[in-house]
């Protein structure tokens, strides 16, 4: 048998940090990562044969649980026809039509291979379309690892204490203004001064890369109206929230119209897909029709399209999101109850299918509030639960994800494990 420890030490010799994406290295919680052998439904199995209830869900895509038979079958059928053609296919159109139906603010979209690429394109598009260079982003929001967005970023950048990366030209970061999340006054003040130079305000409509921090009432509406006043474009980065919090994402949940939407994760059902979409007028500025260049050898890959399409079809079943919201509520209220019993301050945020755990008193509305949570305590909680067979995100700054496979029994088992863990904290 190969052990997690053996694989990790060998991997560290060939792959930086032993991982292909930083948060996987467990630096946020200490200890060594698990090497996963397989997954099914709400469960993961590591290479040592141990089973875990999974609240990471591959960081968001697995909204139907792992290895869903219908999604696997769709991919298998597509695979028989060949892996990649680098030419247009009918299934790309079918996925594009499905996305436009679910998100009526999107009239056209371009597929990419990751969320990072989708957002990178969205920013270039906003700059190309407006002829302006500056952008506004929010502290602790993560929009992938492209240069101009790795400024005070969330997710792994935050976990490693490197919210701004080495290797990014200062010139590029000068055009990125970073403001506090959920602080509309701060945005209004900057827009008053520089609104005519701002190409776009980009925001995670529900911040999901510093735990889960929902928008305060009026925040997104305020951004929309500031963009309208100053001729800037509003980008909603729905890589995480798209198709999760509602069939049409956070823009449906809160009734906010973005100019550009970025998608990832669920749109690929577990295979590498991202997308950037918006009105026909904006999207027509992309190559080959317009002057903003963007491309991808494997973009629109048929296997990835098949996984995404089946995933989006399945989540349109009646009651899907209501049930996901109910299960999230059951999980969060159960956790809150056992935390109160154990007299551990634990503030929990939730939206359908997604949650944040903050070891502190509430409320948690800003990056500063998130920083005030006890991350060592989160690390201890994480390891207690891991020993009990529950796999939470290996960082206090990541959201938790539920899937349709998280049924009552699985949630009850998790809450019992959490009760034990909280009493030992
Ligand atoms: N935007 C948001 C809101 C994200 O959560 C992420 C990834 N967690 C990205 C962009 C980047 O996506 P990817 O990792 O697929 O490049």
UniProtKB/TrEMBL annotation:
Keywords: Cytoplasm, Isomerase, Porphyrin biosynthesis, Pyridoxal phosphate
Gene3D superfamilies per UniProt: Aspartate Aminotransferase, domain 1 (3.90.1150.10), Type I PLP-dependent aspartate aminotransferase-like (Major domain) (3.40.640.10)
GO molecular function: glutamate-1-semialdehyde 2,1-aminomutase activity; pyridoxal phosphate binding; transaminase activity
Catalytic activity: (S)-4-amino-5-oxopentanoate = 5-aminolevulinate
Sites of N6-(pyridoxal phosphate)lysine modification: 265
Entry cofactors: pyridoxal 5'-phosphate
Leading EC class: isomerase
CC annotations in GO: cytoplasm
The keyword Isomerase is assigned to this record: yes
GO biological process: protoporphyrinogen IX biosynthetic process
SUBUNIT field: Homodimer.
Family per record: Belongs to the class-III pyridoxal-phosphate-dependent aminotransferase family. HemL subfamily.
HAMAP family registered for this protein in UniProt: HemL_aminotrans_3 (MF_00375)
Record's protein name: Glutamate-1-semialdehyde 2,1-aminomutase
Organism, as annotated: Igneacidithiobacillus copahuensis
Taxonomy of the source species: Bacteria, Pseudomonadati, Pseudomonadota, Acidithiobacillia, Acidithiobacillales
Gene for this chain: hemL
């Amino acid at each position: 048998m190969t052990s997690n420890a053996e694989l990790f030490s060998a991997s560290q010799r060939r792959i930086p940090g032993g991982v292909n994406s930083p948060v996987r290295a467990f630096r946020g919680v200490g200890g060594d990562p698990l090497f996963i052998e397989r997954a099914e439904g709400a469960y993961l199995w590591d290479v040592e044969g141990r089973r875990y209830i999974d609240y990471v869900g591959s960081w968001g895509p697995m909204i139907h649980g792992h290895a869903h038979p219908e999604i696997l079958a769709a991919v298998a059928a597509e695979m028989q026809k060949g892996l990649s053609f680098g030419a247009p296919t009918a299934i790309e159109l079918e996925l594009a039509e499905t996305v436009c139906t679910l998100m009526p603010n999107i009239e056209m979209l371009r597929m990419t291979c990751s969320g990072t690429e989708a957002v990178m394109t969205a920013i270039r598009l906003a700059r190309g379309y407006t002829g302006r260079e500056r952008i506004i982003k929010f502290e602790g929001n993560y929009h992938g690892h492209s240069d101009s967005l790795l400024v005070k970023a969330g997710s792994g950048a935050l976990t490693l204490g490197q919210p701004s990366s080495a290797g990014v030209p200062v010139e590029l970061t000068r055009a990125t203004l970073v403001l506090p999340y959920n602080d509309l006054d701060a945005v209004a003040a900057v827009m008053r001064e520089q609104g005519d130079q701002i190409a776009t305000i980009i925001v995670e409509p529900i911040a999901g890369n510093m735990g889960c921090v929902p928008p305060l009432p009026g925040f997104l509406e305020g951004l929309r109206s500031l963009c309208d006043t100053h001729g800037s474009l509003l980008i909603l980065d729905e890589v995480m929230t798209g198709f999760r919090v509602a069939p049409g994402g956070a823009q449906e949940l809160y009734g906010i119209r973005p100019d550009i939407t970025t998608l990832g994760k669920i749109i690929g059902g577990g295979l590498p897909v991202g997308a950037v979409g918006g009105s026909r007028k904006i999207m027509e500025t992309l190559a080959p029709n317009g002057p903003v260049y963007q491309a991808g050898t494997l973009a629109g890959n048929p296997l990835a399209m098949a996984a995404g399409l089946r995933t989006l079809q399945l989540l349109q079943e009646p009651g899907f999101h209501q049930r996901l919201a109910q299960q999230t509520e059951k999980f969060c209220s159960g956790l809150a109850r056992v935390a109160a019993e154990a007299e551990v301050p634990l503030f929990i945020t939730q939206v359908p299918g997604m949650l944040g755990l903050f070891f502190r008193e509430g409320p948690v509305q800003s990056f500063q509030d998130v920083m005030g949570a006890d991350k060592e305590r989160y690390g201890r909680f994480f390891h207690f639960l891991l020993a009990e067979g529950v796999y939470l995100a290996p960082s206090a700054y990541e959201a938790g994800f539920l899937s349709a496979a998280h049924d009552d029994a699985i949630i009850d088992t998790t809450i019992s494990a959490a009760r034990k863990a909280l009493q030992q904290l």
